[in-house]
Amino acid sequence: MKNESSRRSFLAAGGAIAAGAFLAACASGNPGSASSSGSGSASASGGAKGAGKKVSITITPFAGANLAAMPTAFAQYYQEKNPNVSITLDDTVLFTKQVAGYKADPNKPLTNLAFSNSASTATGKALGMYAKLDYSRIPNTADLVPHLVEKDHCGVALGADQMGIVSNKHNYPSGLNSWSDLWSPQQRGKECYFTTPWWAIGVAASEHGGSWTNMDPGFGIWQQNAQNIRTIVTANPQFLNVLASGEAPLTSHYFGTSNAWAAAGAPLQYNAPQEGVFFDSISVNVVAASSADQIEVMYDMLNEMLTPKWNSMWADSSVEVPALTSTTLTPKLKALPQISAGSNQKFVSVDWDTVGQNLPAWTDRWNQDVVSKI
Amino acid sequence: MTTTFLKRSSGLEPGAPPAPAAPRSSRRRTGLLLVAPSVVLLLAVFVTSLETMVEYSFQVERSNGANVIGTLETWRSFLGNGYYWTIIRQTVLLGLITTAATAVVGYLTAYALFHIKRRGWRNIGLGVVFSPFIFSGIASVYAWQLLLSQSGFLNSMLGHLGIGPVNFLYERTGVVLALVQALLPLMVLPILSSLNQIDGTLGEAASDLGAPRWRTFVRVILPLSAPGLIAGCQLTFALTISAFTAPSLLGGGRVATLSTSVYNFVQNSEFPLASVTGLVLLVLALVSAGIFLLVQRRFAEADRGGRTFVAIRPRGIRLLGGWLTLVFLFELIPAVIVVISSFSSVSWGAWPPPGYSLHWYSNLFHQAEVWPSFWRSIEVAVAVVILAVAIGVLASIGLVRYRFRGSPFLQSAVMSPLVVPKIAFGFAAFMLLFRMNIASGLWAVTLAHTVATVPMVIVLTTAALLRTDRMLDQAAVDLGASPVQAFVKSTLPQIMPTIVVSGVLCFLVSFNEVELSIFMLNSGQQTLPVWMFNYLNDYQDPTPAALSTLMGGFALVLVLIVGLILYCSPTARGMYLNKNKKERDQVAVSA
Prior knowledge:
heterodimer, A: alpha/beta, D-Maltodextrin-Binding Protein, domain 2, two-stranded parallel ribbon, 14 helices, 10 strands, 40% helix, 15% strand, globular, disordered N terminus, B: MetI-like fold, two-stranded antiparallel sheet, 2 strands
């Protein structure tokens, strides 16, 4: 990746010459320049050592619902407390873009601090894009719920959502309570999926003699029952519409998202399968290629985020189980059994390293073996 | 007749070879100079981006993230896998079905529009046919979901007749319907342009010689309007095989195409496979462009020069009026659904809405990024219009008037950005800029949009140029005008309506573009459609429908203004638009 081919360099140079002064003028916005902002700010302060220079940090929060509330408030608070730190929030550097940038140049990160779900954390870790942290430099990690501690200390968890079965109340008045309902022949033409439901494939595999390292039985079951799938959706509004309209009234999805949809009036319900739910910890990851100054600052930021004040705000705004044992639930969260039960729930064990390494291959197999037969 | 007088005065007879021209080397040089800006743009932006894709296609990624460089493994795994060949077949099939359906619907519609006697009504009809460009593509697809779903508008109509529910949605039928609706304007426009350029005396002559109306149509009108039909088919086929939104959102996984595969691979961070798939699509597109070019040549009159003529007199539409009504309904219904949805009281796409509210408009005006995004979109679109029209028109002149060895290849090459999936092009451009250490942003998006819209200008302008009368230029040169003066005074007025329409098309395409832009824009740089796309992913409510309604209103005002300009333009009212008797006489006298 780091080696530039001479052919590419030649064409790139030709292109640059052809574009002429225009490109040159625009190149003043080079990410490497100290005056840059946005995507460039991630690496802009690479040499920001010495007094008087600000350390720039780019945070990529989740967008949507109320998920940016805590990062936004935290950034404002932290900058006021540390005038030598400048924080940019950029919710456009999604995981795909982070990976694309990393593959183009692993030493030039598009962001420094990325909010990620477990699968993204695992994939980012497998790529080497996200750093493994020294928890001794983040004292507040001692207060983390044990179940939410990433085993290699890649990032720190702020909370956890869970995945179960989401269905339309009109079509399923009492809901469905088993993962195996998803591959039951009774559900022909009823289901919809957004991303590859690798977790449901994993459950099918484990129930039929497989495991996370042997997913063949799971894919076999899903292939046999591919006709259960009415449609694959590719956008969130479409997901909500097919579920709410009853066109495809059954899926597996996050509790937090389905709860927000139901709160907005959609006739949807969430059920925790009896075999257990998938806990999906939501973490903040440090991008490995960040400068030493930036990493130093980010250790401090992470420690600050892991205080009850900020953790409570995160859990409340994202409707998640808080990651700290010391965080008190807000009344809103206390009223939700899936949250108030915390980690005292039955959950499916996941080998996240295997997931991180195999997710692209599983996605291909899902498209070829299952989606092609719906 | 005027035509005869002109031909005599210039010493040329119909079908005669062009007047003695500059030496071949000089013509070749002029042609190359005219095509040069588009080639430079193509090289600077598109080819260098493609090169990134080519480079990635020779890599393979291991599960631990390690990359192996310089291997054919990804190509082998793609070409050796029957699943991907099925996708290639499905892509071509979707292209052929959609092109055939659009050609039939488009020809009849263009023919009917052409024969409307009242210009005002014809312009309104054109506006309706062009309405898909006015509404955001994403919003239209969203409307098709509400139309075609089991509980949607169409099935509720069928339910009253005791039929259904029928599965229209998440099948190929729904995808083809949405694509025909969206691409119809690009079929109608060149056909209409060709019909406008047919010598009306030919039909009269056929009639005088006893040919019935249908035979005149089959033997005279259809062959002479073929260049427009072929240009429309070329655009439709190219845009269908590279379409992403409709197959993705309405295919429901059942209509897998190369373009949707590229998107899936990019989302899955499988960049080598995405690159191979994008390149296969490009090859497919270049082959199809070459075939269309060969067919187009059979009908072109550029070598002989076009003819000065008196256009066909519109006869009125009679039975075709019913057809036009159906087409207008087909074109307008998605927009109507979007507008109605924007007033829905609920956040999800219920049809009909259980109640009505202005909540989503209120929500829209509370979004801080809307206005800055809107102005960014305007800036980009205006810059794209200026660049694309200038570069595209020059290239068309070079390719039509100064044909030289290699010009067919160049024409295919400059058309290629039209067919590469925009998500792949955007991704490749982002990777290129990132590796060259150049910050992307609005300027990069402007260049990328220009590359993507220049082919449209070339297709439309080429179709117009192919049937302009070169003898007028030659006559002007004989009378002492310089070639540039002759072009400006003679050819330019003939193709001006097409140039204006091309400009409007470029503006609307750029203004609504998402997939190409999304990788290159960061927070604080977003254009309006990119903002809308991100909003849709983050929040699931009809606020984007409210925005689409307002954007549609804005685009409608723009189109009305351009229509007014065209209406008032003497060139547009001249010989290449239909005329009433008085105007026809004026043309004859002035000629």
